[in-house]
Design a protein that fits this description.
By secondary structure, this protein is α+β, with helices and mostly antiparallel strands. The chain has six helices and five strands. The protein has a single domain, classed as Butyryl-CoA Dehydrogenase, subunit A, domain 3, CATH 1.20.140.
Length: about 220
């Protein structure tokens, strides 16, 4: 039994790493600081706007306090640029793929603990989990790159008048959420490598062949 458990030590670590990556990716999807817009104090749009994939929050400073207003949106809103609408779907897909990857590796680790080591079950379950986690990392990476490109090229957004936001800010930069998303993508890639590196124990691979040879000799 210890031999069987030791054969999947990396994959057990990978399971923990994949869980962390999935949590980080799902959390980053809901944060608003993907882009930070600095609004010109000399205009009617003075303040700060933090833009996420599903909502934008505006912080307007007064002499007494800071007023905060948040506006939600979805991929059905046609005023959103293509990069945000595609990134919304990519991040949702990453969350689903990561969850399916966790389910697959849970099944594989259960097989290892119960000494069920057929290649068609345990090995393939690890491979599927590795592919799913890497695919989730790719989805997050594409969203990150597109978000970075949009900020660097200073692209604007035609928000509804009720949002009281300009087409383009006075200045903009990448928000802190990008750090969380980058870490999520890296961790998912790492967990995928752990799962794809799984190899069956030598005794479980050789034993069926030996048994077959012994049976043939007896007959």
């Amino acid at each position: 039994m210890p031999l069987l458990i030791n054969s999947a030590n990396c994959q057990m670590v990978g399971f923990a790493v994949a869980t962390i990556g999935w949590i980080l990716g799902t959390t980053a999807m809901g944060f608003v600081e993907w882009r930070v817009w600095y609004l010109d104090n000399a205009s009617q749009f003075s303040g700060l706007a933090c833009m996420g994939m599903w909502r934008v929050c505006v912080f307007r400073h007064t002499n007494i306090t800071t007023a905060t207003s948040c506006h939600s949106y979805s991929y059905h809103d046609t005023y959103l640029p293509l990069d945000i609408r595609v990134s919304q779907n990519l991040l949702l897909m990453a969350s689903i793929l990561g969850l399916l990857g966790k389910a697959s590796v849970t099944f594989a680790l259960k097989n290892v603990s119960m000494r069920i080591l057929e290649k068609n079950t345990t090995y393939k379950a690890f491979v599927i989990s590795g592919i799913l986690n890497i695919a989730a990392g790719i989805c997050i990476s594409v969203a990150l790159i597109w978000n970075y490109h949009s900020v660097m090229t200073e692209e604007g957004i035609v928000f509804p008048p009720s949002f009281n936001l300009p087409f383009k800010p006075h200045a903009q930069q990448i928000g802190n959420t990008v750090i969380v998303a980058c870490l999520a993508a890296f961790v998912l890639f790492l967990s995928g490598w752990f799962f794809l590196s799984y190899k069956l124990p030598l005794d479980s691979q050789v034993h069926p062949e030996i048994s077959g040879n012994v049976d043939s000799c007896l007959h």
